[in-house]
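Training component of the fellowship. As part of building independent skills, the fellow (R.M.) carried out the full modelling exercise for a liganded target. The chosen ligand was zinc ion. The inputs are recorded below so that the supervisory panel can assess the work.
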Amino acid sequence: MIDTFKTLLGDAGVLTEPDDVAPYATDWKHTVRGAPACVLRPRNTADVAAVMRIAHERRIVIVPQGGNTGLAAGAVPDASGSQVVLSLSRMKAIQNVDPVGMTIEAEAGCILKTAQDAAADVGRLLPISLAAEGSAQIGGVVSTNAGGINVLRYGMARQLVLGLEVVQADGTVINGLRSLRKDNAGYDWKQLFIGSEGTLGIVTAAVLRLMPRPKLVVTSLLAVADPAAALRLLKLMQDELGETINAFELISGLSVKLVEEQFGQRAPLAGNGWFVLIEASANLGGLREAFENVLSRALEQAIATDGVIAESQTQAAQLWAIRERITEAELKAGRSVKHDVSVPIPALPAFLADAEASVSSGFPGARINAFGHAGDGNMHFNVLVSVDTDSAALNRSVYDLVAIHGGSISAEHGIGSYRVAELAHYRAGAELSIARLLKRSLDPKGILNSGKILGMEK
Ligand code: FAD
Ligand code: MLT
Ligand code: ZN
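Fellow's submitted model of the complex:
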């Protein structure tokens, strides 16, 4: 098998040495350690198609991998030694940036930050933004239907994908790299591949929507007593500032403390409850004055207890660094069990209170690192635990409450290999049946990232 792939991709396109393969074998959190038979590094779509034809013929399981920043361990192989990682990293060209049509076309391996910068160079905004944007790739972002900090205004990756090129399990290339805003000619098949975590096809390139680049940006950190106050603040902000709000991030006191402990970075305001980081932007004047007025009202009405507005881009970046470093601070702090959950927005305070009570009573000593995209109803209810904590029991205690509050066990990170059992438990019935039907239709031999999302097909 290795020789066949070397003939196809050349020596540089096939990694087999343990040191070369190691970075591709474990996930960002180092929770899962796989054993790939080799790592393939195609140069173009034709290479990917040829790899898939061989894999299909010989029933070789292919695990697509982008920047390997995923938080569901979806991009790493299992420990069998037979699965092959397909890294898209060499396919990183930006094919086109169009400031009039407001689109960007890029290969799957293009780093998200590189694509953002290319859009900025022509005065446009690629609004998908997340703390891992310096490593995450367009193919990974599309395949996880990534969210991030700007979903409130611009939607998830799905809302920004106009066209896709995909290689199917048998090597067939579907070229749908169209940049059309309106296209009702038949089924919108690309939706199947967005968020399917490499289990239905390999994304090789995408056309994404761009937005006007706002000239005025206001960034503010506020202290609030609790999540209920944060939702009152959200309503006030939306009433007064409307669609100018890009981000509304809720951050617990413990999250801020973790960043201070691990990075020595302090929040520039006092607070003994929760914090909200808000970003608003616009192109027409008056935004800052309007924001200051709303902030004054929030303080007068005791919705917020304190607040600062960044005076410069540097200060804004410092406020964002507090938020964006939470995940790394959590990793440095020791073992954690992540819950990337969403509930209907009005249910957030009750869910957080119930989940905190349940974890505190069931898992003494556990520390709750809760933060996230509250404006979307998405919280990262991550729990710092000791080495002997039963993570399955912890998951159950959180996810049962997610279900009671009408939520989802994965808001944006996906199922990967972390949440396979939980998906089967919480999404039983017809929804799983249709998922299996799609999987069998598009990947009848079960060679695309098998074991992920739906588990091993029987
Ligand atoms: P990978 O990790 O390489 O892969 C992710 C999944 O997609 C795997 O199942 C893989 O098999 C599949 N895949 C990758 N490339 C392809 C392809 N070309 N074709 C088919 N399948 C493919 N996520 C959010 O949604 N919002 C956040 O705010 C956020 N913040 C993060 C912050 C940090 C610090 C970190 C480490 C991660 C964060 N993530 C977040 C998770 C992660 O960055 C995103 O899921 C990102 O989209 C993954 O991109 P990637 O290129 O690293 O994909
Ligand atoms: C984030 O929003 O920073 C990541 O999605 C969250 C995480 O670490 O759980
Ligand atoms: Zn997130």
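The panel noted the following from the submitted structure. The domain at 334-412+419-427 is CATH 3.30.70.2740 (Alpha-Beta Plaits). DSSP finds 17 helices and 19 strands in the chain.
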